[in-house]
Design brief:
Layout (H helix, E strand, L loop, with lengths): L7 H16 L6 E10 L5 H12 L4 E7 L3 H10 L4 E2 L1 E2 H9 L6 H4 L11 E3 L2 E4 L8 E4 L1
Parallel strand pairs: 1-2, 1-3
Antiparallel strand pairs: 1-7, 4-6, 5-6
Helix pairs in contact: 1-2
């Protein structure tokens, strides 16, 4: 099988399209909100999250980057429903998916969260952009 090389822009565009597809549901005239957990405002992922949010926002989809405490907070936010997507380091995403990291079990839950999807690599660091398919907050316009 041939290896396909993608630029960071293509990876984020694909992740944004995936997130948009998972956020679309009913055809009613509602504004949908999609929150991306990023990390601290002084870090790398907050501006990247803002760029992704700006790239995929539309009249019917309001996407925003949310400043958080980082990977574990983003995973817990997705699981708890306070955000639809977020940046996560690969190891934290793996622990959340499998529930196998006993040292942070109290933070990530004991059994894993198998509904997490999506990943990308940026800046030489494996970073996942997890989301739950079909998750999107609704608000009547």
């Amino acid at each position: 099988m041939p290896i396909i090389m993608l630029s960071r822009r293509e990876v984020f565009r694909g992740a944004a399209m995936l997130a948009t597809m998972s956020a679309t549901g009913s055809a009613r005239a509602q504004t949908k909100f999609f929150r991306i957990g990023t990390g601290g405002t002084g870090g790398t992922y907050y501006p990247v999250g803002g760029m992704v949010a700006n790239a995929i926002s539309s009249e019917k989809l309001n996407v925003s980057a949310v400043s958080t405490a980082g990977s574990v907070a983003n995973i817990n936010g997705i699981i708890g429903g306070s955000m639809e997507s977020g940046f996560s380091q690969a190891d934290v995403n793996s622990w959340a998916f499998t529930g196998l990291f006993a040292g942070r079990r109290e933070l990530l839950g004991p059994h894993g969260y198998r509904a997490l999807r999506g990943q990308a690599e940026g800046g030489g660091v494996a970073c996942h952009l997890p989301f739950v398919p079909g998750a999107c907050a609704h608000h009547n316009a």
